[in-house]
Protein 1
Amino acid sequence: MSMPATDKTASQRLSVFGLCLLAVCLLLFSPLVDAEEKSARELPGVKVFNPAAELWRDVRQREAPVSGKTQVGGVETGVLINATGDRWRQFRMDELIPVGGYVIGAIIVLLLIFYMVRGRVPIEGGASDRKLPRYTTYERMVHWFIASVFLFLAITGLILLFGRPMLIPLFGKEGFSIIASACKEGHNLMGPLFLLALVMVFFQFVRRNIYQKGDLTWLLRGGGIIGKKHVPSNFFNMGEKTMFWLLVFVGSLIGISGLVLVFPVLGLGREFMALAHVGHAIGALLMIAVIIGHIYIGTVGMEGAIEGMKTGYCDLNWAKEHHDLWATKAIDQGEAMSNEAVASLNGEKTSTAPPGATIQGAGK
Amino acid sequence: MARMKFYCDPERCIECNACVTACKNENEVPWGVNRRRVVTIKDGEPGERSLSVACMHCSDAPCATVCPVDCFYTTQDGVVLHDKDICIGCGYCFYACPFGAPQFPEDGAFATRGKMDKCTFCAGGPEADHSADEHRKYGSNRLAEGKLPLCAEMCSTKALLAGDANVISDVYRKRIINRGAAVLARGVSYRDASFRAPRSTGGKSSSQE
């Protein structure tokens, strides 16, 4: 009784084991069988594409730029839809105009606050009776040349940028169109002069604008803005040098991108021209912000700062306070002149015009 | 009012360029400008398709958004037009337009930048209808005569449709229903075959072994 029972159980166990083995085998190999069957069934060309979707994907250039053929000549005429224009629209309308406006506004407000807090930086020793020759006639001419061209380009450019939200409500569309048209023509015609002026400025001032020892100290001490102490510096201080190099590099970027924008006939295409516009706009706004600061220091911000560029001579005490390394050297070389001598050299009639203490540096 | 649109049916366009020529002739378009052009994608390959493109008269036109003098306006018919008396020829609409519709006529200083020119949907400009000024600046005003743009009117295969958006989308939808279902069911790819392939090949020419 027990034997067959045991036999039965053993055979039952065996068959159960066999079934399990079979099931495991099936489970193990079934994906392979399935995959083989699948690949055998998948013939090329059976994949269902939406033909229209594929065409429009190419038209919209979703995967890769697709340029078709066309009988119409011109730049990019084979491109059906160029989506970069939309990115550019977003940049100009949502980023450039609001952010640019805030940047320019913020610079002006900050300078106003700074002026109210700090006030006009005086010549501490007071105006002296002697002057140092600072800029030659040619240097002053180059400076005012680039200054007037820059101001003209900045104002016309800002009118074109902010005119629609700010000036159309004032002048109406027709009126603003006349202003904008004049601005655009003037901007395009004067633009190349800026590059010429930039080259002249570069060669005239580059030697005195190379960074040297002491510039880092000037930077670390904030150029003397914080506190009352003046920081020693040479002919140009670190701030002026930085402005010079900004003008050289950012100015070149503005000038060259401007040339790209003036000549659409060069056939550079929409994408490149939109990129040139982005560089032109960002560079120009940066330079305008820097120049607003430059004008502030030159006019209301500091006593005696504009004198050198106006007359060619600067006050001796001003030179000692702001550019002492250069001033000491110049005084050592005997370049200091009396106010009367300078006045007579500038052609001003004075009752007593004795020759200056030393005139040897006058021609420089 | 109607909202005017163009639609080009790529299954019908045969790249004959008649729309380009018709537009140039009807509107006396300035030298160097083509308000309409036909572009062929995959030229000479299976799945070649042609499309005629001009100003699409967008409902929210990017050209109008970026214009620094705000010279664009949308008519009651939904046609995007621009005022050449206000336009200063800065070219911003040329950068912003995805379709390359606004173009520079080469008559400015150094033959570079004149006032922009673009498709008017044969609707003239802001001047009085059919005035000499309007014709000189913008070309003909067929819409005022109750006619549709000439490019679409004379399209030989009726690939280019122009008119109220609801009407032309209805026309196009009916075409799709008639032709599309069978082809989609057979699974013919635009890359691999042509809709115009004969029925004997089952609509798939290159993919079948």
Note: Residues 4-167 of chain B form a domain with the Alpha-Beta Plaits fold (CATH 3.30.70.20).
Protein 2
Amino acid sequence: MEIELRINGSAQKLDVAPQVSLLDALREYLGLTGTKKGCDQGACGACTVLADGRRINACLALAVQYQGREITTIEGVDHPLQEAFVRADGFQCGYCTPGQICSAIGMLAEHKEGAPSAATEHLADTGGELDETEIRERMSGNLCRCGAYNGIVSAIKEVAK
Amino acid sequence: MKPFSYLSAPDTATALRTIADSEDVKFLAGGTNLVDLMREGIEHPATVIDITRLPLTGIEELPDGTIRVGALVTNSRLAADPLIRTRYPVLAKAILLGASAQLRNMATVGGNLLQRTRCMYFYDEASACNKRAPGSGCDAIGGFSRGSAVLGASEHCIATHPSDMAVALVMLDAVVEVESVHGIRHVPIAEFHRVPGDTPHIETALAADELITAIELPPVPAAAHSSYRKVRDRASYAFALVSVAAALAVEDGRITEVRLALGGVATKPWRAHIAEELLLGAEATDENFARAAAAELAPALPQSDNTFKIDLAQRTVVAVLRKLNAERSAS
């Protein structure tokens, strides 16, 4: 199928079968290998990208479904979180980092909109503080096999201030 | 993944006509379960109809106070909705305790109701599974059964229903609106999911040509004071071993309304009617909470690895009711 995706601000035409995931379209068809394939079943978060600013798992998204949506991958990100991750040692091997950063960008936007998490004590409240418990719960969809979680949380906390 | 033909439905009528006229069609919304099942070879439709462009995305209050939620509302949007957070905190909490933020951003209300079990024998094509291959047997029985059900199981299937959201909906007596070319039906959520019996592959009351178009939440004043607790193997992003949805109203020390539902322990989202009947009118004490929980779990049939769920479910019920009662007394 001929489809057109909007990736990092520019239109990309590609010819994919309907079963091709957004993740494979990015990596194998468009050469955007910053987005990583970890589990390929929605369990690790390495493939996290933003669709119209919302974080999603690109491995469970079919590319054909995302025509007309604005997709942002790590290649299109220019955000203070990137330097904060370096400063705070928010990674070792780096494989989960693109997903962590895209996820954190989406997470900060959700929090700003007043969206609750399972860690939010009073669900009716909007605009509670983004403390460490909240960050860990809201980022639980991104696993880090190296266990750099303390650095990841510090980096996000620094930027969230 | 087995190749399939893809159609993006421009409107509901087209989607319903297409599924009525063809064999082997699946509707695709968020994709968080179906795409995975297709990749694993468990689902292999010839045609996939993408329904994400259908106008089923509203959350609206009807004149009688019912909240109507379009089937394509995402899980995250429903959990963040101010009406849901204040009137049905149990539902917001159940959703937020399920999956991850990324998955909740993709997954829809209708799709959540149709998600299939995470029983590892269902996923493993080398194993016997009556859900995946009717008549092949059940390797979960006598196998590794830590995640399996203790309530509602049969000799053909002991797989748990994985949804948290559906447990809250069962507690709230939600109604599922389904549509086909023949018209619209309203199915009470308690009748929507089925226990396996001798047909574990038939999981819901949805006919092959029907589409879930909405869920309706009736007014439940007691639900303003409700909660959901989930017990699992890690602190976040895991399926429930046991979960409890509850709402409690107490006057002069006596229970005037109670709603209780269990997840993680049963083959379908489980309304705890036995416990509710014992609690209604009784004094709100730990002893009565424990007695009701024990009665609900009395019919439980454990496997070798999941006996712990019987005790854990009872203790979680008591803990949730005790906390609701204490919060009520304090407020």
Note: Residues 5-53 of chain B form a domain with the Uridine Diphospho-n-acetylenolpyruvylglucosamine Reductase; domain 2 fold (CATH 3.30.43).
